[in-house]
Amino acid sequence: MTDITPHQDQASGHGNTPARLGYSPVADIPHKPRATDTDPKAARRAERQVATMFLLSMLMVVLFIVAYFGIDKDTIIYFPVLGEVGASNVALGLTMGLAILLIGTAAIQWAKKLMPDVEVVQQRHDMVSPKRDALEAQANYERGKEESGFARFPLIRRTLLGALVLFPIPLVVMLRDLWTPKPGTEGKSPADILSTTLWTGGLRIVSDGTYAPVRPEDLPVGGLISAVPIDLKEVEELEENLNARGKAAIILVRMEPDEIRAQQGEGWDYQGILAYSKICTHVGCPIALYEQRTHHLLCPCHQSTFDLADAGNVVFGPAARRMPQLPIGVDEEGYLVAMSDFAEPVGPSFWERG
Amino acid sequence: MTTTSPVEQVGGATATYVDERVGSNKFLSRNLGKVFPDHWSFMLGEIALYSFIVVLLTGVFLTLWFKPSMAEVVYEGSYIPLNGIKMSEAYESALNISFDVRGGLLLRQMHHWSALIFIAAMAVHMFRVFFTGAFRKPREFNWLIGVGLTTFGLLAGFSGYSLPDDLLSGTGLQIARGIVQAVPVIGTWAAFLLFDGEFPGTEFISRLYGVHILLIPGLILALVTVHLMLVWTQKHTQFPGPGRTNDNVVGYPLLPVYMAKAGGFFFIVFGIIALVGGLVTINPIWIFGPYMPDQVSAGSQPDWYIGFLDGALRVMPNIESVIFGWTISWNIFIPALVVPGILFTALGLYPFIEAWVTGDKREHNLLDRPRNAPTRTAFGMMAISFYVLLWVGGANDIIAVAFDLSINSIIWFLRVTLFVIPPIVFLVTRRTCLGLQRRDREKLLHGYESGRVLRLPHGEFIEVHQPLNEKDMAVITAKIDYTPIPAPDKADVDGVRNKNYRAQMLRHRLSEFFYGVNVPKPSAAEIEAGQHHAAHDAAVEAPLHDYEDADQIQNFHGGVLHHPGMAETNAEQVEQR
Amino acid sequence: MKFLAARRRSPLVASALLIGALGVVGGGYAALGAVQPAEAVMAVGTETQVEAGKQLYLEGCSSCHGLQGQGGQTGPTLVGVGAAAVHFQVSTGRMPMAAPGAQAPAGEAVYSDEDIAAMAAYVATLGPGPAIPTAEQISYADADEAYGGELFRINCAQCHQAAGQGGALTQGKYAPSLMEATPQVIYEAMLTGPQNMPVFADTQLPTEDKQAIISYVMGLQEAPSPGGMNLGRFGPVTEGVFLATAIFAALIAAAVWIGMKSR
């Protein structure tokens, strides 16, 4: 039922027009009445539908509160399709979701069935302002420019520009201490810090997770151990961060000595045991995906593949540099140790790398 | 005048009170009846807006429990498989929200799902705006704002899912840092400034928090406000149709219909998000474990909207140069910085490029059907195909496992198709648009094929063509035949050489390319004749529809029914043929 | 010859034989054993079991692995793989390998448990290798699940994925899903390093640690999804697919419904 009075609409926004009613004229488009327009029973049914949805929504809110306080957060329940799920989460989501959704569907049904669906029309106007406004703005600008003397005082102009350009600089400068060097690294550039790790000659290699030192006999051919330096735990406690781990993590693999086609240094292996950095030289993901038979190391992030039997050279993927190798040997007690730090920086490339 | 209820009386008094202070009645008088066009594709932007509101709301709730600190703690909460494990406070608080705060997991999941929906809706909305040419004058600023919103949306999402400091998102942060580090000249310094030294450091999560909950939402809110204000004052565009011109808006008034529909849709979007948050798991951080810089999971991917960057990184060949001891990592620089840089810049500049190429300075409030702008549509599809291929690349290991393929083959396949498929898509799309334009022209000239075949008395078979109804007529005839910019003269009438000849010639050529594929609309006379012709067919067939009696239809011999009452009429019609 | 035969009943003969046998075994060990895993055990199968196993081997395995298990063009050597490897490969249906390919996929076991035990006993005689883990070794009731999770994330997740759903290796190979694996099979896999999986011997990853990992994997298998339907636990990829399909279908359906003319 529409009682919109067609009313001549004028362009909006221009002061001299008389007051208009807030209606828009009915568009000149044939309108097919809906069932709810002609049949009062249909209209009442639609009204009932809308009201029912609002009522259900309210019911859902009550159920939400019941579920929130009533269902233990650890309860697991089985639903077909969903599987074994958390009862609380499902119940809260269902009730809250339906409570909100039903308001929406009710409002839409109300609009579609019971509000007028007669299309109305409004005129547009060009976005450009009337010429008069442009001229007035121009005139005001000219006046302001003249009165400020901006054009007449080049000295003021230039020094103003200088001051305005310079004043934000303190804000930028203060960002410098986003990085405050940690004890032991004062005076070092980022490139210097990136180029060294915790490893030094004689530092024992321990298995990550168990922190047990490794004997060569413990590692069979085809074996893989994720390893870290023996003092890593202390360093982490001291520095209260995981930075050292991020550079010093290595993997130990073992192959038959005659399977090693090339290494990064003479005798850097120990009886077929090789130590390589665990940090991908592409963008830094840790790699421990070692294919025992092909001797390939595959990074899960972007599929860079390194051949550990061939000096860690890249065989596929976006990494440009080989995986750095750590020279190893054994100490007097027969445990595996590093012979020195890496000969090249580990991890992703950087400008100063050389 | 109906009697006002007590509520309305209070409302009226309030309106007066407010008006006396801010002059609000002027706004209300003009805008309560504001007309909004009604098409489902106009609601895509609304999906983005409403999901953003839900993101904000659920986000505020999450801030009540989340602790953005990388300090190390030992977990002692409800989730047994992580009991006694060392982790950051951020991760622990996220676990706490998931397992020890009732409704916490629902909030987390709603927040994450609505973030995904927000960005997806922005993308789909952007496609709609692009393919219908809604970015043309006067709406270029809104397009730019939209590109900005998409960018901030990506940053908001990335910063958000990295906050819980779990193994999956931490890997993403590590990659982001590797990308920053590889930037020439300033890379190492930038990385160290961002992370307060090496990775992972102890500061980054708390820094990211400020960015994620304050800086970016603030920027998005500001841009969304301007975006909506522009839509309000410029009025929404509309599809061509009966009664719709470039100078009006046809639709429904704000009060009550549009308010009910838009408001209702808000509740629907909100409700769907809550339902999905309760029924479908997203980002189960407890499975991934706390972030450790020397651990990683197979099948690590970023959220879908960063997937294209990950894919670009995967398919890029490993090119790196060392020049005088300085390293330039093309293998990182190009996919992570150059490709998105080009994509987003091209996206942002597109309306201005198209305007320059076409020389079109008119205001456009009627939307283009995509088929009527074949070159634009083809460009869009080409860009989308490029994006989709990169996106597929980002999931290559999951695809390999799911479909029993080799990751190496997938990467090689993508390396080739990335350059082969987009041009093919461009050509195919353009030709498809041309074909659709031809179909439209046929419809104008001959009516549309009804699929009913009639046999005339003299034996000829015809397919009955039905004249177009008013709606289709309005839609198809709204097409504008643009003319390309004419070629410039080398010199003007006085023989003075044209200094801008080259630029103008380029513009002319591009304009020809842009408008080159076009099936011109038939003239008004031809259309009239065509519809008339089609009306004939319908008239010939009309008698058939009068008959519902099966017996009589059995007497049917071709296009003329032999029925006593109809003899005269049929004879007439046969004559006219 | 007459000299030896005449003295064959002498009391010194037994001692001499024993010393000689020990010398041979010990010397052989010293020569071959430098890089053998410490827990290598000579299979103690009964003679009939070994015989039965040998028959089964000759029928079903020798065409690829050679008549004496020495390997061939299509199959690697089985000398030193141990009983554990046999049980792993055959009980998971990977062996006999139905068709050539990048990797042997798991499937229905072709042989019965007894047959597998027999074949394992036979292969164990070919050379010292890892034995089938005992019930005690694979019991995980007392294991620390959380510690197992840490070890899992260090040693296993990079191939098998954090939720044990499996992952891609190069050239079409893959690390399989762990959702159907039994404790015994998990232990054996770690012990023997099947195909391209690295070896995690008991000397580098002790039994208690393996039990912890098994406990964690069993936990993963039984884990419910507190957040609702899990989309395969593959991470953002499946979540994105769900978004693009189900969620957007619902949202667009709602938008279309709103815009539709009501009848």
Descriptive overview:
The complex is a heterotrimer of chains A (354), B (577) and C (263). Chain A is of the alpha+beta class and 354 residues long. Chain A has nine helices and 14 strands. Chain A has helices at residues 35-38, 40-70, 87-114, 131-148, 154-166, 169-173, 190-194, 232-239, 243-248, and strands at residues 76-79, 83-86, 120-123, 205-207, 224-229, 250-254, 273-277, 289-291, 296-298, 305-307, 313-316, 325-326, 328-330, 336-338. In chain B, helix 14 runs antiparallel to helix 16. Among the domains of chain B are: 45-238 and 254-289, Cytochrome Bc1 Complex, Chain C (Up-down Bundle), CATH 1.20.810.10; 447-474 and 522-577, no CATH class. Mean pLDDT of chain B is 90; it is low at 553-572. The longest helix of chain B is centred in the C-terminal third of the chain and has 40 residues, at 407-446. Chain C is elongated. Chain C has a two-stranded antiparallel sheet. Helices cover 52% and strands 2% of the residues of chain C. Chain C has helices spanning 2-6, 11-32, 47-60, 62-65, 82-91, 113-126, 135-138, 145-155, 157-160, 183-192, 207-222, 236-259; strands at 167-168, 174-175.
Summary keywords:
heterotrimer; A: 354 residues; alpha+beta; Rieske Iron-sulfur Protein; 5-stranded antiparallel beta sheet; 9 helices; 14 strands; 15% strand; disordered N terminus; B: 577 residues; mainly alpha; Cytochrome Bc1 Complex, Chain C; two-stranded antiparallel sheet; 21 helices; globular
At a glance:
The complex is a heterotrimer of chains A (354), B (577) and C (263). Chain A is of the alpha+beta class and 354 residues long.
How are helices and strands ordered from N to C of chain C?
HHHHHHHHHEEHHH
Q: What is the strand arrangement across the widest sheet of chain C?
A: 1-2
Oligomer: heterotrimer
| Average pLDDT taken over every residue of chain C | 87
Number of strands of chain C: 2
SS field, number of helical segments of chain A: 9
CATH homologous superfamily grouping of one domain in chain C: Cytochrome c-like domain
CATH architecture of one domain in chain C, by name, is Orthogonal Bundle
End-to-end CA span of chain C: 113 Å
Instruction: Give the number of helices of chain C.
Output: 12
> What is the average of the pLDDT values of chain A?
90
